[in-house]
Amino acid sequence: MWTRSASYAWIGVLCHLLTACVPATQAEVPHTRPTIVSLNPCSDAILAEVADPAQILAISHYSADPRSSSMDPAQARRFRTTRGTVEAVLALHPDLVIEGSFIAPATAGAYQRLGLHLETLAIANTVEDSHAQIRQLAALAGHPDRGEALIRRIDSAVAQAAPPANYQPVSAIVWESGGMVPGDNTLIADLLRRTGFTNASAAQGYHQADLLPLERMLANPPQVILTTAGEGPQANEDRLLRHPALASLRTTTRAPLASNLLYCAGPTIIRAVNRLAEVRRALAEPTPNRSRKREGGQTAPSSPLPLAGGVGGGQPQAQSPAR
Question: Lowest CB count within 10 Å: 15, 87, 143, 169, which one?
Answer without folding.
Answer: 87
